[in-house]
Design goal:
Layout: H1 3-22, H2 29-49, H3 54-72, H4 77-95, H5 97-120, H6 124-129, H7 131-142, H8 155-175, H9 182-203, H10 208-241, H11 248-279, H12 288-314, H13 320-325, H14 343-356, H15 358-386, H16 410-432, H17 442-460, H18 464-472, H19 474-487, H20 491-505, H21 509-527, H22 530-541, H23 547-589, H24 591-599, H25 602-607
Helix pairs in contact: 1-3, 2-3, 4-11, 4-12, 5-9, 5-10, 8-9, 8-10, 8-11, 9-10, 10-11, 10-12, 14-21, 14-23, 15-16, 15-23, 16-17, 16-23, 17-18, 17-19, 19-20, 19-23, 20-23, 21-23, 22-23
């Protein structure tokens, strides 16, 4: 069929389809599905017979527009959640099956080392577990309650403390994989030796059955999750060591993304293990058969879901093509601001903006960190430095500077520091996207200060649960600020606008924040590597002063590095939430789609007079 006749035959239908994509009203999903089927048939025909004509471009854009509108109306939140557990996570596990096996084998060997070391050296348990813990456990054994340590704290507090600690251990195991996998193996070695030593400590005292049925009530999920976190770290390390045909940076990014999926999938298991340890492990009077059966079911579930099911689902299927779809484009050009983006695309675009602004962020974060350390010393003096308990560099020591029972004046310093970095992030985003409706002025600075103060007030409460809720609220506080900044609304009006936007578009701001947060923690942990501590010690060696001054210099250096890291990662959160906002606007108003339709002249497209 000649192109002109093909156009004349179908142009009325295409006009009707185009009108349907431009309307903001809800269209019957079945009708839209039929429209989509017809358009895709025409598109297929045009690709075959008119591959170099603009009619194919027009039909491709129209098909995409119909698909996006249909996709917005599906309300498939539950389906996406289910799809992650039955497809996305098992696929990541299948692609990391070698790392899973290596991690498991390495952990078992480490446990054996712990057992053999304790057999040959009775004092080895004191070195690994600590003399205080060993003495306390021996007292419990003498009192007829060998598992009394699990009854020493209130249930809820123990649950929260253990869950957070387990997540942090697993996270360290994961992120240290960035050191070519060596850091992960070191953490796995230590934890494996500790578990082996701990278990044999009770075997020596003829308490194998009781210790096994108590420890592994929660340990079946907890230890298995740490082993799987080790596999995630090795997956990231493999991306650096063995890039294959890909550039090393791209290979590392693919490995890190796959590893992050695994880590996200582990969070419910750590929470469950913490809940069991806090509330049920202490119930040592439960029948042994019940406890043994529960442990068996936990191990069976881990083996089936994390090892057997991924192989069953994906064995023999080509999975490499999926990696290619996740590659970050090498182009320096940023994608359009107005676009409907998935979480993965927001993640990618966030780092493209970050890479474009990296040297500005680097310089200003360094300046802010130096200023913070100087102001901290002015506010708290030498006495304040003495109250800091940094014995080794740890990214989680950042929380120490937000402990307002020790440093009350730091509330104002922290608010100004974080607000300054957030304002800078708004400025850099506006520089990357001149079309963004963001203007730095006094009104915006006040709004930033108010939102940051709300977060800091949650920490000021000195309650662990309130502080945890404050951290969980970060993406929503940031999104609230973004709505207020871009729509020029007061904070109360912006709050209602934010709720309407999120409810109407079903954007998953917390999912985006979680993935960005994991990468942010990776940056902080890399800064907290042993090399950093070594350089600080080198600095101390080269200072001709007494020990007290050298210690203060070390503390000030670590304050600078701590807040330099925080300054580096804060823009990531704001960039991602700004992109979430514009994606929500696109889902609601189809601004970008309308602009693309306008740029394609109807007459030029319909008659196919131009090539691509």
């Amino acid at each position: 069929m000649r192109e002109k006749r093909f156009v004349e035959q179908n142009r009325k239908n295409w006009a009707r389809f185009e009108k349907a994509t431009q309307t903001k009203s809800t269209v019957n999903p079945e009708e839209f599905s039929d429209l989509f089927s017809q358009i895709t048939e025409d598109l297929s025909y045009s690709r075959t017979h008119y591959p170099k004509r603009s009619i194919r471009v027009y039909l491709n854009d129209l098909a995409q527009s119909i698909y996006l509108k249909l996709h917005r109306q599906r309300g498939d939140k539950t389906r996406k959640f289910t799809w992650f557990w039955i497809n996305d996570l098992p696929l990541a596990l299948y692609q990391a099956k070698r790392e899973l096996n290596v991690s498991l084998l390495f952990f078992l060997v480490s446990m054996a080392i712990g057992v053999l070391s304790t057999v040959h050296d009775p004092d080895f348990a004191h070195v690994i577990l600590g003399s205080d813990y060993v003495a306390m456990t021996e007292d419990n054994i003498a009192n007829g309650d060998p598992m009394g340590v699990y009854k020493s704290s209130e249930e809820l507090g123990m649950f929260l403390q253990i869950t957070i600690n387990n997540i942090l251990v697993a996270f360290r195991t994961f992120v240290l994989g960035a050191f070519f996998g060596v850091g992960t193996l070191v953490i796995m070695l230590y934890n494996g030796i500790m578990v082996g030593t701990f278990q044999y400590f009770f075997i020596e005292r003829d308490l194998l059955q009781e210790s096994f049925l108590t420890i592994w009530m929660h340990g079946a999920l907890e230890i298995s999750s740490i082993v799987i976190a080790g596999a995630a770290g090795l997956t990231m390390g493999r991306g650096l060591l063995f890039p294959g045909t890909l550039p090393r940076r791209q290979s590392f990014i693919l490995g890190a993304r796959r590893a992050i999926k695994i880590m996200v999938g582990l969070v419910p298991f750590f929470i469950t293990a913490g809940f069991i340890e806090g509330f049920f492990t202490r119930l040592t009077d439960m029948p042994d058969l019940l406890r043994g059966s529960f442990i068996f079911m936990c191990f069976a579930f881990v083996g089936v879901y994390f090892w057997w099911y991924p192989s069953l689902r994906f064995s023999g299927r080509p999975t490499g093509i999926l990696d290619q779809e996740e590659l970050i484009p090498e182009t320096q050009k940023l994608p359009s601001l107005f676009g409907l983006r998935k979480a993965r695309e927001i993640f990618t675009t966030t780092f493209m903006i970050y890479r474009k602004s990296f040297f500005s962020i680097l310089g200003i974060a360094a300046g802010f960190a130096l200023t913070y350390a100087f102001m901290f010393y002015l506010l708290h003096g030498s006495e304040g430095l003495d109250m800091i308990t940094i014995s080794e560099f740890d990214p989680f020591s950042l929380y120490e500077f937000h402990d307002y029972s020790i440093f009350p004046l730091s509330f104002f310093l922290n608010c100004v520091f974080i607000s300054g970095m957030v304002a800078l992030s708004f400025f850099l985003f506006g520089k990357a996207y001149p079309d963004a409706a963001v203007k730095i002025n006094g009104s915006l600075l006040i709004k930033i200060l108010v939102i940051v103060s709300l977060f800091e007030l949650s920490i000021l409460s000195d309650q662990l649960l309130v502080a945890a809720l404050g951290i969980i609220a970060i993406p929503f506080l940031t999104f609230w600020l973004v709505v207020s900044a871009t729509e020029k609304l007061s904070l109360p009006n912006a709050f209602s606008s934010m709720l309407a936007l999120l409810n109407g578009t079903k954007r998953h701001v917390f999912v985006t924040f979680l993935s960005i947060g994991l990468l942010s923690m990776l940056i902080l942990v890399l800064l907290a590597s042993p090399f950093t501590w070594f350089y600080v010690e080198v600095l101390q060696w080269n200072i001709d002063a007494d020990t007290e001054i050298k210690e203060k210099v070390a503390i000030l250096s670590l304050i600078i590095i701590d807040h330099f890291g925080l300054g580096l990662v804060l823009p990531l959160t704001l960039f991602s939430q700004l992109l979430e906002y514009y994606s929500a606007q696109e889902a609601k108003n189809a601004i970008g789609l309308a602009e693309r339709v306008k740029t394609i002249g109807m007459k030029r497209r319909a008659y196919g007079m131009e090539q691509e």
